[in-house]
Design a protein that fits this description.
The complex is a heterodimer. By secondary structure, chain A is mostly helical. Chain A contains 21 helices and two strands. Chain B has a two-stranded antiparallel sheet. The chains are: A mainly alpha, B mainly alpha.
């Protein structure tokens, strides 16, 4: 079953890229919906206790102990659900733009989705790395071909930055891999293994663990990104076509957080005591730093980009705190941040399409001409501001509580996000929607059916998950216990 | 009854959903009917709860598990005890009257349906706040009312400054909310739960450093400062008057701003354990009360005067809380809800009649054209000023009696000063608005009319309540029956069979109590009468803002607090934002990254020169490498 989740988007990508059908976008949508339906089935199977039955394992390079192993625990499942839930929304949201070589665009998006599913399900370290890098290729082309001004330079920087980061991770992975197996065994048996449970079983001395963890950290810190490794992010988010920005912010950055939970900490827990204070400090500084910068941004997309750095800093800090509350908080917030940030970028895109500008100074009074947009944008904005009974709140509460449990002062500083979040989000909303309409915004057309569907679905999720967060928390509860139990720090 | 309890908040929520989704298609009458009708339903159910609690104790209902992580187990649950049902009666009762009034007041507004939808959403949030059985539920309501306040202050969003006022209110509230949130974390850390039942059961047994309890109390109080507009987080409330007047009456006078008082009263067990926190609350409350009253002396916008008056009265409530007089604070919440809602709605009636005018310098003599509004405004003014036997007289007197008993004469004298200032600015407002000659434009004079019955009927009901509200908690020494009904009600058994608010009898000589009461009363009467001569007989009018000098200027400019905050926090954050963006983010950090990239390129350019195709070069290199390798083996 897990193999199917991976193959559907990849096959669809191949079909759209090679056959170049005249209705590529519809085919892409159809396949993402099919994968969403399959995901729903997988969730049901998982909840009826069939987690292990969903796995797929086959040797890949048996001599080197590399296997093609996919499996799903609650944590993986949550991110797979996020990926496949956002997939049709991202595809549908791209319909508003006409791209040259459209089939290539949708093919790349599908390929990306396949790789992301692979990242979240891989049970083998090398397989994880392969998918991790595979995901980078389509997003590179999406940004470099269909992006905005200065896209080549910006995308190249993004590519090199994240790619170099990943190489450090590869070194760490290979190092731990070389420590696996029984050193006294003969040459004729397979010595090493990339399997997660074998890698986790390797005991490391604190000083080697320090290097191993640092290697992972560089990769994931760039990907998320964590302060001060974030400078590629605002440019890339702003320049990329909105579909690409949604992929990056909605799903791809979760690869980094997921990597920390699944790979970085379990493989080198011996270094937690020495490195976590630094990581926590960087994450918490990043929250406040990015929030303050977001306060005066005038480009709507760039503002969301900085707010995303702040939100991810909070999520990362919750993980580094490495207690149940923090990790559960980070998981539910990864899911909900995906919904909210995709909604916000979609709003930014539809305003840009109508007005031809992303500058908040050129907006104003849109609420008068577009009441539906005003309402749905408001709901999603409130989710981003983490107002209770929207989806943003439970995660923020748990994250801050988790950080507070680690260190009360850090919890208090991180808590500033609830003030700054309100400052920059309400400012953006107010500048765009309130006030007297100007010449351009007076003609602003309200949402069409397609846009209404997208924002309606997202706003619905914001409210439902706000009232019933336990549906998500329950999904990951056992798996978080398992991973916290397996890792002794 | 238990199955019906959830409907008390959910009825207004249903009203919000219907009016929010379909209000545009419905007629205004239908919208008004749904908005007010759902509230009437909640009111009736609240009365039913009230009866049942009196007979058989508090009601607890848990709907579903909201969140469960690692020992933190929070249900979407309700607790209806003596305290919450009392708040529910105020919210739904006064709320219902204000909904009815709004049918008339908002009749010509395009956003009629939206207004009722927001108002219902507010009532839903406020009911969650007081009905929740744990701190998380309280927090839902706490932030929910802040959100509704934001939506309603910015109701006329085409006006940018209204939108700014809304944003200011939300952000200042959020500063308080952070305190409340951290307080909740500390409570969970200390008690292992967020449920009232578990926390308050553990309270007598818990062994913690006293500093922890004080820290919890202070953090919760930071939340109360934001919501209840106390120094230093009070400046949003006067700006909140940008919203439609019924909103000011319901949210920014009668209910939401008293949430902080409810919070402290709910946690009275905690506050009773921390002398430091209680004293801090009393100091903040008293200071706020006096400062706001001083500013109120020199405001000329009818709603601004009432806004500062609200801040001042809230300060008195916190003074009572700090003195350990929790019941008294809720008593004043109750009477204040009556007379302040009355005053705001009457002010709304004036604004309605004057065609939107809010400056009292352009009014005058309105008592002839608007007799009902005039009489109810007069009752409200007398009630808030402590005119004998009106509701405010009793609740204020009780606050000052406790202040004297627990704080001493200085505290009492400062409280009495604040009360006297109340009478000064309120009588000024009354006489300048309703007496003398009309000073508005010709057009306004022509337009001037008494408001329709749908608006005046709620006014008359509130006027009656403002007169008789004092009966709820008559002082024992007056010999008017049993007395202190409310204190007995709150002293009843709540959770864990403990009193909701323990009885806290005064230990003062009866003659002393009479004496204290006499002094404040005589002061109020002198002011009420004296002002009549100043503003009515001598026709003194407030001068223009530019003509203010000295202390008056300081008061008129609100002690320049807004300007100071603007300079200290707003401007500096904005500057820091740009500084961090351009110098740290773009120049330093990104510059470093780009520098590394360029460095690698230039190093690459140097290395390229090595591959020059000259075989001799390669051979030399090879030999040198081999020698190095051999050397390293020996070393």
């Amino acid at each position: 079953m897990s193999l199917l989740l991976l193959l559907i988007p990849l096959i669809a990508a191949g079909f759209v890229l090679v056959a170049r059908p005249s209705n590529g976008r519809q085919i892409a949508l159809l396949f993402t919906l099919a994968n969403l339906a399959l995901t729903a089935y997988v969730v049901m199977a998982f909840q009826s206790g069939g987690g292990e039955a969903l796995a797929f394992r086959t040797p890949w390079v048996p001599n080197a102990g590399i296997s093609f192993s996919l499996s799903l625990d609650g944590i993986s499942l949550l991110l797979v659900v996020l990926t496949n839930l956002l997939a049709p929304i991202i595809v549908l949201s791209s319909f508003g733009r006409t791209y040259e070589h459209e089939n290539r665009y949708y093919g790349m998006v599908l390929m990306m989705l396949g790789a992301l599913n692979g990242v979240f399900m891989a049970e083998d370290g090398l397989l994880f790395y392969v998918f991790y890098e595979l995901a980078l290729i389509p997003i590179y082309f999406i940004c470099a071909i269909w992006g905005g001004q200065d896209r080549i330079r910006v995308t190249l920087k993004f590519f090199i930055y994240t790619f170099i980061g990943s190489l450090f991770m590869l070194m760490s992975l290979i190092y731990v891999y070389l420590q696996t197996g029984d050193p006294l065994a003969g040459n004729d048996v397979i010595r090493h293994s990339f399997l997660w449970r074998d890698l986790v079983a390797v005991p490391l001395s604190p000083s080697t663990a320090w290097w191993v963890m640092l290697g992972f950290f560089v990769a994931f810190a760039v990907k998320m990104p964590i302060f001060p490794f974030h400078t590629w992010q605002p440019d890339t988010y702003t320049t990329a076509p909105t579909g690409g920005t949604m992929l990056l912010s909605g799903i791809m950055l979760k690869m980094g957080v997921y990597g920390v939970i699944r790979w970085m900490v379990p493989l080198a827990p011996e270094a937690m005591h020495t490195l976590v204070p630094t990581f926590m400090t960087l994450a918490v500084v990043g929250i406040v730093y990015a929030s303050i910068i977001a306060v005066k941004q005038s480009d709507f997309k760039r503002l969301i980009a900085y707010s995303s750095i702040a939100h991810v800093g909070l999520i990362a800090a919750g993980v580094f705190a490495w207690n149940k509350t923090g990790v559960q908080g980070s998981l539910i917030q990864m899911f909900n941040h995906g919904i909210n940030v995709v909604g916000l970028f979609f709003v930014a895109d539809l305003i840009e399409r109508r007005l031809g500008t992303r500058s908040l100074a050129d907006m104003g009074g849109i609420a008068k001409s577009a009441p539906r947009l005003a309402t749905l944008f408001m709901i999603i904005m409130l989710g981003a501001v983490a107002v209770p009974l929207t989806n943003g709140f439970p995660g923020e509460f748990l994250l801050l509580n988790g950080i507070w449990n680690y260190n009360a002062w850090m919890g208090a500083v991180a808590g500033l996000t609830i003030i700054f979040g309100a400052v920059y989000m309400l400012r953006a909303y107010g500048l765009a929607m309130f006030g007297e309409p100007n010449e351009a915004t007076a003609q602003f057309a309200d949402l069409d059916t397609r846009e209404l569907t997208i924002l309606g679905v997202l706003a619905f999720l914001v409210l439902v998950l706000g009232f019933f967060p336990q549906t998500i928390l329950g999904l990951t509860d056992q798996s978080v216990n398992a991973i916290l139990g397996a890792v002794q720090i | 009854m238990n199955t019906l309890v959830p409907f008390i908040p959910f009825l207004p929520l249903i009203g919000f959903i219907i009016n929010g989704l379909f209000g545009k298609q419905l007629s205004k009458n239908a919208v008004g009917l749904i908005g007010s009708g759902t509230l009437l339903g909640s009111l009736i159910l609240s009365v039913a709860c009230f009866n049942q609690i009196g007979a058989s104790g508090p009601i607890q209902v848990n709907l579903y598990q909201f969140l469960a992580v690692d020992g933190l187990n929070v249900g979407f649950g309700f607790l209806v005890d003596q305290l919450s049902v009392w708040m529910m009666l105020i919210i739904t009762g006064v709320g219902f009257l204000i909904h009815v009034y709004s049918v008339g007041y908002m009749h010509d507004d395009d956003g009629f349906y939206k207004f009722f939808a927001y108002l219902n959403l507010f009532v839903f949030s406020m009911l969650l706040l007081v009905m929740g059985d744990n701190f998380m539920m309280l927090f839902f309501g706490w932030e929910g009312v802040g959100l509704c306040s934001y939506l309603l202050i910015g109701f006329w969003y085409e006006n940018r400054s209204y939108g700014e006022a809304a944003r200011k209110a939300f952000i200042m509230n959020r500063i308080g909310d952070l305190g409340l949130l951290l307080g909740m974390f500390l409570i969970y850390q200390t008690f292992g739960s967020l449920n009232y039942a578990e926390i308050f059961a553990k309270l007598p047994l818990i062994r913690v450093e006293p500093g922890v309890i004080t820290a919890i109390c202070m953090l919760l109080f930071v939340g109360a400062m934001g919501k209840s507009a106390q120094i230093p987080l009070y400046t949003w409330l006067p700006d909140a008057m940008a919203g439609p007047t019924p909103v000011s009456a319901l949210i920014h006078a009668a209910t939401m701003v008293t949430a902080g008082v409810y919070l402290v009263a709910r946690c009275n067990g905690l506050y009773a354990m921390s002398h430091e926190a209680s004293e801090f609350i009393a100091i903040i409350g008293l200071t706020t009360s006096i400062v706001a009253a001083l500013i109120g002396l020199r405001q000329n916008d009818i709603k601004k005067v009432l806004a500062y008056s609200t801040v001042s009265q809230l300060g008195l409530m916190f003074l009572a809380l700090g003195m350990g007089a929790y019941t008294t604070a809720i008593f004043h919440v109750t009477t204040h809800a009556f007379f302040k809602a009355l005053l705001f709605l009457a002010a709304g009636s004036v604004i309605h009649g004057m065609g939107g005018e809010q400056d009292i310098r352009n009014m005058g003599g309105l008592r002839k054209a608007m007799p009902i509004t005039f009489w109810v405004f007069l009752i409200g003014t007398f009630a808030i000023s402590g005119f004998p036997f009106l509701s405010g007289f009793f609740s204020k007197d009780e606050i000052f009696a406790y202040t004297y008993a627990h704080g001493g004469i200085i505290w009492w004298a400062l409280g009495a000063l604040s009360a006297t200032l109340t009478a000064v600015y309120m009588s000024r407002l009354l006489y300048v608005t309703f007496f003398g000659d009309f000073r508005g434009t010709h057009e306004q004079e022509h337009h001037l009319h008494e408001s329709p019955l749908v608006m005046t009927a709620p006014l008359m009901v509130l006027a009656v309540l403002s007169v008789v509200g004092g009966l709820l908690n008559l002082p024992h020494f007056m010999g008017l029956g049993e007395g202190e009904w409310l204190a007995h009600w709150f002293g009843g058994n709540g959770l864990n069979n403990m009193p909701v608010v323990p009885m806290n009898p005064l230990h003062l000589e009866e003659s002393l109590e009479w004496g204290l009461m006499a002094i404040t009363t005589v002061l109020a009467l002198i002011v009420l009468l004296g002002s009549y001569f100043i503003y009515q007989r001598s026709k003194n009018l407030p001068v223009a803002d530019e003509a203010q000098v000295g202390l008056s200027k300081l008061f008129a400019h609100k002690f320049y607090v807004d300007e100071i905050y603007n300079f200290l926090f707003v401007r500096s954050t904005e500057k820091l934002s740009k500084l961090l963006h351009y110098y740290v983010d773009v120049w330093a950090l990104d510059g470093l990254v780009n520098g590394v990239g360029k460095g690698v390129q230039s190093v690459g350019a140097q290395f390229r020169k090595l591959q020059n195709g000259n075989i001799e070069y390669y051979l030399i290199g090879m030999v040198a490498g081999a020698i190095l390798l051999v050397l390293t083996m020996f070393l």
